[in-house]
## 1
Amino acid sequence: MRGGGGSPGYGLPEGLYRDPAHGKVAGVCAGLGAYFQIRPKFIRIAAVVGSLFGFFPVIAGLYVLLTMILPVRPEGMTGVGEGEDRPRPSVDELKRRFESLDHRLARMEELVISEDFRLRQKFREL
C-alpha cells in the first residue's frame, strides 16, 4: 500500500474509494463523485441514461467490478456526499494565486524578450 492513504493494489488512483455512507447501493457512484468532485446524482443520472441507450450490461458490469475492487472509504475521511459542499478556495486565495501567476508570466516575458535570450538562441542555431 502506498503512503498517504491511497487505494491498495490494482493500480487504482490514490483517493478512489467506495462510499457506502453516502451511496444508494454500494457507494460506487458516491465514491466516484467524491474522487472527481462532482455530485453523485450526476453520475447516477449518467448511468441511468446510458442504460436506457443500451449500455446496461456494460454499466452493470462496471458497477459490480468497482464494488469488488474499490476499498471502502476510511472513517473520518471527508468526501462529497449528496448534501455536502466541497471546500472552495476563497477569493483572497484565488487573487494571490493569480497575482503569483501574473508575476511569473511577466518574468518569463522579460526573459524571452531580453537580448541575452536572443544571443543564446543564435548560438544554439549555429
## 2
Amino acid sequence: MRKNSIKNTRINGEVQRVLAEIIRGEIKDPRIHPLTSVVAVEVAPDLKSCKAWISVLGDEEARNATYQGLRSAEGFIKSKLAKEINLRNTPSITFIMDQSIEYGVNMSKKIDDVMSLEKSGEEEE
C-alpha cells in the first residue's frame, strides 16, 4: 500500500475520528484538557505505527499535562482503537503536540485588534 493511496487516506481519516472519540469521551484522566483535538493522523503503510498530531487550546502547563496523560493512556487507547477499527495490525501511536489551533486563534485576535484600531481611526476623522 502506497503512502498516499485512497485506502491509506481512508484509514487515516477513520483512525483520526475514532481517536478523537476516545480522547473526548472515554479517557478519564484529569490531566487531559477538555479542549484537546486531534488535528491530523498519519498511519504508516504497513499499519505498524501511527503519528497523531494533538492540539490543546490552553497554556503551556495544560499542553504538558495533556501530553503526559495521553502518553500514560497509550495502551488503553490502542486497545480501544483495536476494538473499534478492524485492521490487520493495530498501530502503535506516537503523539505529537501541534499548536496550529492556538496560532490561528492568536492571529485572528491580532487581526480583530488591527481592524478595531483602523475603525476607531476612521471615526475620529
## 3
Amino acid sequence: MEFLNYTDIDYIFAKRSPSFKKLGLDIDAMSEHEKILEMLKEPRLIRRPLVVYKNEIAVGADVKKLV
C-alpha cells in the first residue's frame, strides 16, 4: 500500500505477465481494491523490482530512471 503513495496502481500491476493472462482478468473492469486483492493472492502480478529513492518510484525496467 505504501507504494501507492508514489504512483498509480496501474503502474505496478503486471497486466502483461503470464500470470495475469492465465487468470483471464479484465483489467479495465477492475477497481483499485480488486487489483490490490489480486496482487495479494498472486504476487506475480506485481511488477518488479519496485524501487523507491528520494520520493520517486521506479518499477521494472524503469530502474534506469533513477540513475
## 4
Amino acid sequence: MNKFKMLAAGFLMTAAGANAQNAYDALNLAKTDPIMGTARYSAMGGALGALGADATVLKDNPAGLGVYRSCDLTLTPNVYVTDDKSVGFNINNFAFVLNFGKSGHKKGYVTSSLGVSYNRLRNFKRYYTFRENGWDHSMTEDFFDLATDKVFGAGKDLGLIDAQEENGKDVSATSQFRLKDEYVDRRIKFKEDGALDEWNISYGMNISNRFYWGVGVGFVNIDYTQTSSYDEYGLNGQGDWYKDEYYEAKGTGFNFKFGAIGRITDFMRVGVAFHTPTFYNVDQYTNTNMDYNNQSHNTEIYWSETEYDLQTPLKLQGSLGFIIGKRALVGLEYQYEDYGAMRLSDGSFDFDEEKDIINEYMKKTHTFKVGTEVAIVNGFSGRLGFAYVTKPVDEALSEVYNTTYSVALPREAMYYTGGLGYKGKSFYADFALVFKNQKEYFFDYLPIAEPISKESLFSTNIMATVGWRF
C-alpha cells in the first residue's frame, strides 16, 4: 500500500478511537502557551518569574505579588493572526491586585497583596487543508480490511460497497466504475477552535524586603472543538462521497501554585515556583458522518458522549532577575514539565493501556525564556524577548496509535517578542508583538509512519495593556 493509500485508510480506523480518551487528546488539552499575558510580560518573553510586580505573575510565580507596593488594575486585549491568515480577538489578561500597604517595618512583615486575575492560556484556532487530484485509488477499496462494522454497514447502505460478490467478497462500488486510466480527486480538511482559560486567586508577602513568598489557586476552563473531513470526488459525476469526524471537549479543572523570590543583592533576584498538576473533569462528544451522492437524509452513522478525568503534568520553574540601576532589567527563566506523567481515568478504573502509551511516548519538555527591558527616555521603555519550548511527544507515537480523525503532533516552538511601554505616575500602557513558530507533523490519521506534511506554523499576537496603580 503506497503512502496515499495508507493515508486514506486512516479514516477507516476503528470508530471507538474517535470516542475513547487517548494520549493524543490528553496532550492536546494539557499544553499551554507559555508567554501569553500582559503586553509587558509577553514582550519580555515571559521571563518575569524572579522580577514580579506584573499581573501575569499570578499564573507563574505568585511570590511576585509580594513585590507590589501599590494596588493595580489592568486589562490586556489581544488580536491574533493564525497561519491561515484568519484573525481572532480575545482578552489575554485581566487582573486586580489589592495591596495592603507598608507596615513601616524594615524587618519581618513589610507588605502583602491579594490578586485576582484572568489569563488566556492558549488559543486553539487553526485550519489546514490538503488536496490531491488524479489519485489512482479510492478509500472505499480499503473498507474491507480497515472499516468498522458501523462504517462498513453504512457503506453498504449508501451503495459505496457493492452487495454483489467478486471472488467471494463484497467489492467497492467506486472501483467498478473507475476505469483503467481514470482517477479520483480527494480533499482533507482539519479545523480546530476554542480556548484554554484560567482564573487565579493568589496571595503574596514581602519579608524584610529580601524574601517574597506566594500561594495561589487556579481554576481552568477547556472549550475545544475539532472537525476532520475527508471528501472524495469520483468520475463523471459518480462516486462523490465524504466522511467527517467531529470531536468536542469541554471541561473545568483546578491547580495550586507555590512560589518564592529571594533578593540576593540589589542587583540580583532568584525565583522558584511549583505548580501542582491541573485536575480536570472533561465532557467529550464525538460523531461520525458519511454520505454518498447526497442520497441520505440522515448522514450520522455514529455518535458518543463520555465523561472522564484528566491529570496534567506538574510544573517546576526557576528564574533569575537582574536589575541594572534604573536603566534596565534582564530576566532568565526555565520551566520543566513531564507529559509522561499525565493520567486519564473515568472514575471507575484507570486506563492502563493509555498509561503505558503516555509513559513511553510523551516527553519531558524544557522551556527557556529570556527577556530584557531598557529605559529609553523618561517614562518610556523598550523590550525584547525570546522563548524556546522543546517537543512534548515522540513522533513514533504515530506508528502505534489509532485515531479516526486528523492529528497534529507538536514539535518544538519558538517565540520572538518585542514591545514598548509607558509608565506615568499612576497610569501605564504597554504594547507587544509576539511571533510564534510552531513546528508540527500533521497526519490525517494514526497509525502511519510518514506525515502528510511537516509544517512550520506561523502566528502573530498583537496586544496592548492599559493599567492604573493607586
